[in-house]
Amino acid sequence: MASHRDLPAGLVNQLFHNNGSSSFTEFVAAYAPELLPQRDKVLATPIGDQVPHATTIVAATFAGGVVMAGDRRATSGNIISQRDVEKVFRADDYSCMGIAGTASTGIEMARLYRVELEHYEKMEGRTLSVAGKANRLATMIRGNLGMAMQGLVVVPLFAAYDPDRDEGRIFSYDVAGGPYERDRFDAIGSGSIFARGALKKLYRDGASADDMVMTLIQALYDAADDDSATGGPDVTRKIWPLVSVIDGDGYRRLTDEQVAGYVEQMLEQRLISPDGPIAPLR
Amino acid sequence: MSMPFGYASPEQIMRDKADYARKGIARGRSVVVLQYEDGILFVAPNPSRALHKISEIYDRIGFAAVGRYNEFEELRLGGIRYADINGYTYDRSDVTGRGLANLYASNLGRIFTESIKSLEVEVVVAEVGDTSDGDAIYRLTFDGSVFDEHGFAAMGGQADAVATRLKERYREGMPLADALEVALTALTEPGGERPPVAQLEVAVLDRKREHRKFLRLTGARLERLLSQASAGGGAAEETAEEPPPGAAPGEGASGASGASSASGASGASGQATPPPTGPEGDIDDGSSPL
């Protein structure tokens, strides 16, 4: 049985009709809106505290690229609902997004966003500009505003390598959209205040990718140190932060072994000085 | 008894449509699709850098076409929509080359029977698996017939001759440079001139790549590959320059002979009678490099 018969009949009849748009979301919304997340329904009661939330994401640029890292904890109220949740997603070969807020809505958004970018690239034969990608994500966040008001808030952090400038770029958002381009580094989620404080002191201009991964691991540890919803490295279960590096060679996620190396090095140092590296005063 | 004015028998109509489509397809250059050790290779002589004959449909699926650009472009865009919608609705692993080939077949078949003019296209849908056993190459003709090809496929002008040359040289599990050499030899008339690098469209579905397997080979990478190919495959090419006397054209081309028998079954005549109608223009005899 051909699988296209499982799709809505109205949609299959339209597959070969050119509607003049290279957007996946627009095409599906026109012919089979039920396949897309339903944004306009009003919930009887806000359910924000009852569904798992993802927490801290940090990102920072280095010479010729950008690194993004996220902790692994998801919480529902005071309960830890998952210890190894993934909240940093590959969007395409040169970009990624991290999500904070309602985990399910965020994962769904990341999946749709990836299809949206790839769909454009295949239809048009060219990749979207970095600003174009960032703007497209803003529209998706804006579409979720109604649900955000009901407690299903999702706020992403977007990082991409810009081949025209040969550098990494970071964009942040709020519940109503954005994007806001960030210089050097940014953090989102419940532990972001602490992570940003750490990044302020540890960020070095022109650092290598290796140093910047270490900086982000340190910042995530500081966030977990002071925010109960952010998970630190789980040494007994061997659950490490997710770290993605994007540079001219494209997107790559560091393996567990690679991240374990950075984490062990940091923990060793923190046994001696628990608050981490000390920035020079003058 | 006289027939009403303007009457044409259904057999005649189908035959005319098939001949028209065949003549249109025969005007274009050939495209070759073949398996190599790490996946599937697509090669097409194409002077245009903007209008592609080879494209990516999904993570593991590639598309190649000959014939009228606007017609196969519609098929390509529809295929991408189909694949992306399926992958988003279910899972990325639920998008298969077989499903896409079925969709194209039903669409091509419907247009062939219902429209005045059939599409003047021939299409290959190729899917790369985790191992070479999982690779699939489907060739679809203008009337919606599907051929499950093994190892390689050729289509376009001179498809029979190209497929014969391809069959003589094709081996299972060739390295990429050798496979490219075989494809270029097959695409070139014996003693003819090869198309320059700038006018070649080459892409692979490489099973060793992460996420998306499709990759266009252009510029320096393609030139490096071609120089490897000519260094390593030079001797083999000389011996293979003359087709062995035993191999009669037609008998060698399994795909091409399959095409004519299948379209015969669907009511069209063989290629013995000249097409009564068809697009204007020269038919490609493989002598020009493009």
Q: Could you characterize what this model shows?
A:
Chain A: This is Proteasome subunit beta. Chain A: It catalyses: Cleavage of peptide bonds with very broad specificity. Chain A: Pathway: Protein degradation; proteasomal Pup-dependent pathway. The complex is a heterodimer of chains A (282) and B (290). Chain A is α+β, with helices and mostly antiparallel strands and 282 residues long. Chain A has one domain: Aminohydrolase, N-terminal nucleophile (Ntn) domain (Glutamine Phosphoribosylpyrophosphate, subunit 1, domain 1, 4-Layer Sandwich), CATH 3.60.20. Chain A has 8 helices and 13 strands. In chain A, the strands form 2 sheets. In chain A, strands 1, 4, 5, 6, 7, 8, 9 and 10 form an 8-stranded antiparallel β-sheet that branches. In chain A, strands 11-2-3-12-13 form a 5-stranded antiparallel β-sheet, covered by helices on one side. In chain A, strand 6 and strand 7 (95-102) form a beta hairpin. In chain A, helix 6 packs antiparallel against helix 7. The N and C termini of chain A lie far apart (72 Å). The model of chain A has no long low-confidence stretch (mean pLDDT 88). Chain B has 290 residues and is an alpha+beta fold. Chain B has a single domain (10-265), classed as 4-Layer Sandwich (Glutamine Phosphoribosylpyrophosphate, subunit 1, domain 1), CATH 3.60.20.10. In chain B, strands 8-1-2-9-10 form a 5-stranded antiparallel β-sheet. Chain B has a 5-stranded antiparallel β-sheet with strand order 3-4-5-6-7, with helices on both faces.
Main attributes?
heterodimer; A: 282 residues; alpha+beta; Glutamine Phosphoribosylpyrophosphate, subunit 1, domain 1; eight-stranded antiparallel sheet; five-stranded antiparallel sheet; 35% helix; B: 290 residues; 7 helices; Proteasome_suB-type (chain A)
List the SSEs and their pairings.
The complex is a heterodimer of chains A (282) and B (290).
Chain A: H1 9-12, H2 24-31, E1 53-54, E2 57-62, E3 65-70, E4 74-76, E5 79-82, E6 88-92, E7 95-102, H3 103-124, H4 130-143, H5 145-149, E8 154-162, E9 167-174, E10 177-182, E11 185-188, H6 192-202, H7 209-226, E12 242-247, E13 250-253, H8 256-272
Antiparallel strand pairs in A: 1-4, 1-7, 2-3, 2-11, 3-12, 4-5, 6-7, 7-8, 8-9, 9-10, 12-13
Chain B: H1 10-26, E1 31-36, E2 39-45, E3 54-58, E4 61-67, H2 69-89, H3 97-114, E5 121-127, E6 136-140, E7 146-149, E8 152-155, H4 159-169, H5 176-187, E9 200-206, E10 214-217, H6 219-240, H7 254-265
Helix pairs in contact in B: 4-5, 5-6
